[in-house]
């Protein structure tokens, strides 16, 4: 069997090199786009977005009491509390679909129930207050309001359905966690609640301000299209006031926060704790980052960067998104799930697609599915929670986003 597999792999590689038309401009351009997108991702997302997120995830694992996570986000917590906390905590971070992954891994491995954790995983990139305001201003108040209502509603519905679908497995997992927490219950707390809260507050603020752009808070700097859009050409100059002032002094604020963090680490933490924190951070990094980069390469090859062509012509996508039928909404949902959107960049992309004839239903569908998923994030999600749970989570987002868009398109 092993020899047969080896022969098959060798044969496929040979046939690939023999028949693939590497001289094709579109194919060579797609290969270039794959590496250009990976380079862009490395430059704009890894150091300032993912690295702080990895450290926050490691800190959650080591410095947040598991009893607290179970109390507020566990499967047995009150539904209003668990899903309310998950949706709000995800929304205030304004992170992209990839940066939310280490944070999700941190709370999930620390005892959060699958349902609340899934709500957090969806809400982090999907419920971005600034993106919703920008959508209303640029794409119309109707779409902006529908995006706000749809994103909040879907985050809770998806979480509840994930909990229901995997209830038996979740009960077994929570029981196992309870035994582990009981064994560690006598561990003495080295910091009080206020110190822990300040520590995590500073970590989150470092993530936010290190990525602060002229557009406001959020992970991943907007591209030139969005910066032009926010420059006042479309009378959105009020975005530039207070947020623009913070952008001017972002590095002063970030360095101040880093200095405060250093003081806290020296005075509040033991050396063994810091070693364990770094070890946990490295575990998350080696588990998530390679898969993300592979996903970015594939996404760049197939779809290209915004404004650039991958293997799949963007004209095909724009043509298929016309009208408000089932096909258009499903295609918008799948395309949005595969594409990678840096924070806020979905707005100018949608503006261009709607100018090319995209219906309002598919537009909402893409706004609900696109920011919450990407091909890189889907690969990591499946790896972290398993094929069955991962595909269910992805399927729920794709289907429910399409349904929401179709309903909106008929209104």
List the helices and strands and how they pair.
Layout: H1 2-19, H2 25-63, H3 66-73, H4 79-91, H5 100-109, H6 114-126, H7 129-139, H8 141-165, H9 167-183, H10 193-210, H11 224-233, H12 242-248, H13 250-268, H14 271-303, H15 314-320, H16 326-338, H17 346-355, H18 360-369, H19 375-385, H20 387-410
Helix pairs in contact: 2-5, 2-10, 2-14, 4-6, 5-6, 6-8, 7-8, 7-17, 8-18, 8-20, 10-13, 14-19, 16-18, 16-20, 17-18, 18-20, 19-20
Can you offer a commentary on this structure?
By secondary structure, the chain is mainly alpha-helical. The chain has one domain. 77% of the residues lie in helices and 0% in strands. It is built from 20 helices and no strands. The protein has helices at residues 2-19, 25-63, 66-73, 79-91, 100-109, 114-126, 129-139, 141-165, 167-183, 193-210, 224-233, 242-248, 250-268, 271-303, 314-320, 326-338, 346-355, 360-369, 375-385, 387-410. α14 crosses α19. The longest helix is centred in the N-terminal third of the chain and has 39 residues, at 25-63. The radius of gyration is 22 Å and the shape is globular. The model is unreliable at 232-238 (pLDDT under 50).
